[in-house]
Amino acid sequence: MNGNRTTELMGRRRGAAAARDGSALIVVVWVVSLLAMVVSSFAFEAFVEAKITTYYRNRLKTQCLARSGVEIAKMLMTRSDELTRKQTDMTEKSRWYSAAKNLSDGLAVCGLTEPLGDGAIVMDIVPEPARRNVNLLRSEDDWERVLAVGDITEDLGLWPVLIESFLDWTDADSTPRRDGAETDDHYATLTPPYRVKNGPLDTVEELLLIRGWKPVLLFGGVLNTARKDEEPIRISGIGDLLTTYGDGKVNVNAASRRALMTLPGIDDATADFIIAEREAGQEAEGAEKPDTSFQSVSDFFARVPGLEGATLTPHITTGSKIFRITSVGTVGAVKNTVSCIVSRDGKNMKILRWREE
Question: What residue spans of the chain are helical by DSSP H?
Fold first, then answer.
């Protein structure tokens, strides 16, 4: 009897000890799991902080690279001026000769890449008169050609409002045209209200303040028509055709195909011919490529037949003193862009506009 009781007590004690051991094991497992979670959290935070630090370091690098690209562009424009005046020590084998020669010929320089450290700079230097000065589009004919190139065709029914509202915005009087708008009859009724400028635009984007103008008309995209029976249409927009700088004359050595087609008498076939004619020397092989850019307006008409000189001459030029510089600094997947407009008068340069993204 006593033996059985002793055995029973020993069994109870062993069970209690086993229960205590199991509880302790569970506590240990939980503690280890919590410690693992804390360590993992610290490790993840350290990883994230390292990534953020790397990103900000690379962003600073790309900012410096982009700004350096602007300085390179300024140097190239100075070199191009030296080439034009034939007062330079540059040769065809010089590192920057090709880009400087293009600028001296009135051509654009696009996609110029300069590796630097663990990043790179990609630069575009384009004569600003390669675009139409929006403030000098004073006739309906000028506007209609520009709008048509941007796929904003007459059948959309937008021309009267867009053109006349622009003319009302930039003229000096307060009398609205039939399809235009002035302060009292339109802009004062908006929320918030504002006044018509009655002066030239400072930027192309200022068009978006004018009655009828929408971002899609400048930057392209899907235009929803007001007619229920018609599908939305895709347009290219006209933002790339316009500027607010220059005397209104388009540089035929640098203008894009689309910009050339906004000029009177130039259709798509003629625009293609102009580009092929001015860039023929770029296709030549050899160290010294022939200069096939248009040397003057008379040279342009001599080489491009079938154009009406009296109509086109007031609209074109072959040189530029204002340039748009776009410099992109890249380090890995991080990018920074500097875009500026500069005017050049010999070695003197002035920044007219500066924008960083």
Answer: 2-84, 97-104, 140-149, 159-170, 215-219, 257-260, 268-278, 297-303, 309-312
